[in-house]
Write a structure and sequence with these properties.
Helix content is 39%, strand content 15%. Residues 383-414 have low confidence and may be disordered. Helix 2 packs across helix 3 (94-106) and helix 10 packs across helix 13. By secondary structure, it is an alpha/beta fold. The strands form two sheets. It has a seven-stranded parallel sheet with strand order 3-2-1-4-5-6-7, with helices on both faces. The chain has a six-stranded parallel sheet with strand order 10-9-8-11-12-13, with helices on both faces. Helix 10 (277-284) links the parallel strand 11 (265-268) and strand 12. The longest helix has 18 residues, at 329-346. It is built from 15 helices and 13 strands.
Length: 414
């Protein structure tokens, strides 16, 4: 198989795609294939995971690719060319796609590009639409995304592949679930932001659970620019309610797996997703997902059998589902075991890597796709520019990252 280069546009910033890309690079390398991680600088990250020794680690300095201009892209392209020949997975910024496009101008025969659409949100569709001439094959991580993508790019419908992520799942569950005499263990993992994750919906959820006399404990793993708002909202509920919530901060992958193994119910309150990697990872460890109705849930969750799905923002219904599990611990265990089996059968990481290897081989059977000379390297409507649809994932957190940089005495420019 040709070498593969997974781009980390946000460096090792918190996110499921970052975890997925690092795991994919490691597993690809473990199978004897050349794999690299191209990590863009992100000074706001206080720490990151170690890159496996078997993976080539390429560092790309400069401004965050979400705010890159043509000059930054030219500098990026030098780092990108270090990975050639390669199949690139640029992931999710115009800076990373533009660097691939710039590199393709010199010798398009040395590269192939896979256009992953990780989230069911306008920005991600606009991104691959602009870089359509560069992309050999598209990957939709849910059927909902594939449908929208085919409608927006009808001339590329035959080049769209549908595949939710693969995650590591133990072949046998060696865990227990809380008994009726113990608090129900809940967990949320992800970026603590209102945009997309609707993190402040956890406030009315905790209020509803407390009002319905549910005995629970909620661990919140992650960080983000709306964390203080979430903390303040929970504290306003009073000490009896807020005492049931613990913020554990950003944790390592190994620590997160341990949290899932000691959690009964995994919470997702997002407004939109692709297919949530945190949801799949929690299910792999026997957690029952109680989530909002977003892209990727319809295939992963059989409502009432291996999890529950509620409307976006409907925290009253979510609390009722959680209360049901608190009162029916045998059902909790049965649903947790079904969740694990579903991931084992349909989202196995080993079968996912088999499929990905075949995808890479297919991309090299296609003709090279150099960037057209008459097409702008960057979109005219930039991420971060005023527009009627939600902007890229970094827009809301720019102020937060700036504060972190100043605390570290680093440049405030992302």
């Amino acid at each position: 198989m040709k070498p593969v280069c997974f781009v980390l546009p946000d460096g090792q910033g918190l996110g499921g795609v970052t975890v997925w890309a690092m795991d994919m690079a490691r597993m690809t390398a473990e199978r004897g294939h050349a794999a690299s991680l191209l990590e863009h600088a992100n000074p706001s990250v206080l720490w990151g995971e170690e890159v496996a020794d078997s993976v080539v680690h390429i560092e790309c300095a400069g401004k965050h690719p979400a705010w890159a201009n043509i000059d930054e892209v030219a500098a990026y392209a030098h780092a990108y060319r270090q990975a050639l020949p390669a199949t690139f997975v640029p992931n999710y910024t115009e800076g990373s796609y533009a660097a691939c496009a710039r590199a393709s101008k010199e010798d398009p025969t040395q590269m192939r590009v896979l256009g992953y659409v990780h989230t069911d949100q306008p920005y991600y569709y606009e991104l691959v639409e602009h870089y359509d001439p560069l992309i050999h094959l598209f990957v939709a991580v849910s059927e909902e995304i594939a449908t929208t993508l085919a409608a927006r790019l009808p001339h590329r419908a035959d080049d769209i592949r549908i595949r939710p992520y693969g995650v590591a799942a133990p072949s046998r569950l060696e865990r227990s679930w809380s008994d009726v005499s113990s608090p129900l263990q809940l967990a949320f993992a992800g970026r603590l932001v209102r945009e997309q994750k609707r993190i402040t919906d956890l406030i009315p959820l905790v209020e509803q659970l407390h009002a319905q006399s549910v005995d629970f404990r909620l661990r919140i793993a992650g960080e983000g620019c709306d964390e203080q708002e979430l903390r303040a909202g929970l504290e306003a509920l009073g000490p009896r309610a807020s005492a049931k919530v613990e913020f554990v901060g950003r944790v390592s992958q190994d620590q997160m797996q341990q949290i899932w193994r000691t959690t009964d119910v995994a919470i997702l309150v997002s407004a939109y997703e692709g297919t949530s990697i945190a949801m799949l990872e929690s299910m792999a460890h026997g957690c029952v997902p109680v989530v909002t109705r977003v892209s990727g849930t319809s295939k992963a969750i059989q409502n009432g059998r291996n999890g529950f799905v509620v409307g976006i923002g409907d925290m009253r219904s979510m609390a009722r589902r959680i209360r049901f599990l608190a009162e029916s611990r045998q059902k909790l265990e049965a649903m947790g075991r079904d969740a694990h089996q579903g991931v084992l059968q349909h989202h196995s990481i080993s079968r996912y890597v088999d499929w990905f290897e075949a995808l890479v081989e297919e991309s090299w059977q296609r003709e090279p796709r150099g960037w057209p000379s008459d097409r702008p390297l960057m979109p005219k409507v930039r991420c971060g520019s005023p527009k009627p649809v939600p902007i890229s994932p970094w827009g809301r957190c720019k102020r937060f990252y700036g504060k972190v940089r100043r605390r570290l005495n680093l440049a405030s420019e992302p």
